[in-house]
Amino acid sequence: MEISEEVVIVGAGIAGLATALALKRVGIRSMVLERSSELRTTGAAITLYPNAWLALQALGVAHKFTSMYSPLKKGYVINVANGATQEVSYTGINRTGYGPIAVHRRALLETLAGELAPGTIRFSSKLDSIQTVATNDKFSSSIAILSLDDGTVIKAKILIGCDGVHSVVGRWLGLMTPVNSGRSCIRGLAVYPQGHGFKHEFCRFVDQGKKGAYLPLTDKELYWFFTYTSTLKDEKTATDPKLLQKDIMENLANGFPPSFLEVVQHADVATVTWAQLIFRYPWNLIFGHLCKGNITVAGDAMHPMTPELGQGGCSALEDAVVLGRHLAKSLLPNPNGHGQIVAVDAARAIEGYVKERRWRVVGLIIGSYLSGWVQQSGSGFFMKFLRDIIFYKFLFHWVFDAHYDCGKLPNVSLPSQSNGQTKID
Fold first, then answer.
1. Both 8 and 120 in a single domain?
2. The domain spanning residue 201 has which CATH number?
3. For FRET with 80, which of 140, 311, 327, 383 sits at 20 to 30 Å CA-CA?
4. Which of 249, 241, 247, 250 shows the shortest CA–CA distance to 271?
């Protein structure tokens, strides 16, 4: 079977669904290929910072979450070794109107998917290979030929890889394989059927080589995570949620406050997952090919990063809006006059997207890695000086802008049957 599509997006994760929605908002039809048989809604939660809320506003779905979840106003960072506590406040510093909000990952994915037209997502569709073929079409200098494992061939004017850290599209572009940071993370949801009684604040516990935290989602659920220096033993328990939970309580989180251990004890084991923390070397993004012609990547396929700044999902939402903005400025109505839109200069639009995103995500990768390293590398004089003076006072705000505005999607009036005109404001 052979199919022709305007835009094909590989991967129905946060980046893929948000990109499809951004394109829909500007009048571009897309197909999302997902290798699983349904939405991959496993995982616990995600913390969305103000920059993510600006992106969600641009996508037109922010209000769906603010009615269900409340922003965090403050929290605490606690040194496990000496009990020193630092308060972090978000009151009065947020120009977006939103503080960080923890939401269920399932809710985010289902909300994005629910905004798409029926049939946009093609499940059980695994991408095997990519080829490009030059064309004489005035609307596109080349097309991508996608071969799926079921024998389907798809011809696409634009291809966007949102297929995660092991991206097939990223490999085709020549991006290096992400590397292991030497740290691992265990995540889960703690469930209290009668209510957990915790204040709506986050608590983070820092020790040498270890870090744990919990923060409320609702009055009955808390999101928690625990990061630590990896060992060879980890992979043996990685697929067993009960062993992961037991290992935290009896071994890994030794010395952590009882409140953290209680939260882990209340974990719904179905939500407990383990993952190595990996990232892409920033120089690969600086010097590597993030696009070739009408093909590019977004989300983890472009910029996998460690989670210390909580920007993996947030930056993926930014990618979607920025890509939608650039593609919307390079469109003309389909000559058939049926409201379909095709790219006149997709390659130039994609180059603009890459140029805008490259240094933003390079800074986030560097900041995430350094933040994790300085927080978990001891509390001696040198590390304290490096962490508190050099990193947080001078470097942190350069690499991490939680109020970064990815812009708004243009208003597009689709062509009518009578005049075939497209207007982009």
1. yes
2. 3.30.9.30
3. 311
4. 241
Residues 6+ apart with CB under 8 A from 217: 45, 69, 102, 103, 104, 189, 223
Q: What pLDDT is recorded for position 415?
A: 45
| Phi, psi at 131, each rounded to 5° | -135, 160
Residue ranges with strand state E in 192-305? 202-207, 210-216, 221-229, 273-279, 291-292, 295-297
Q: What is the rounded CA–CA span in Å between residue 371 and residue 276?
A: 17
The secondary structure of residue 135, as a DSSP letter, is -
DSSP 8-state class, residue 43: S
Determine the Cα–Cα distance for residues 31 and 144; give it in Å rounded to an integer. Answer: 14
Same domain assignment for residues 271 and 318: no
Going by the DSSP 8-state scheme, the letter that residue 253 receives in this structure is T
**Residues in the chain with pLDDT values less than 70:** 91-98, 136-141, 231-237, 330-344, 373-401, 412-425
Domain boundary among 278, 302, 320: 278
Residue 75: inside a domain, yes or no? no
Q: What is the pLDDT of residue 155?
A: 94
Q: What is the pLDDT of residues 154-178, one digit of tens each?
A: 999 999 999 999 999 999 999 999 9
Question: Which CATH number goes with the domain that contains 31?
Answer: 3.50.50.60
Domain count across the chain: 2
Q: Which residue has the tokens 């997207």?
A: 353
Query: Which are the contacts of 88, defined by CB distance < 8 A and separation ≥ 6?
Result: 74, 75, 76, 77
Q: Which residue range forms the structural domain that includes residue 398?
A: 2-59+103-178+280-424
What is the pLDDT, as a whole number, of residue 337?
A: 38
Kindly list the distances between the CA atom of residue 133 and the CA atoms of 136, 137, 391, in Å, as whole numbers in the listed order: 10, 11, 48
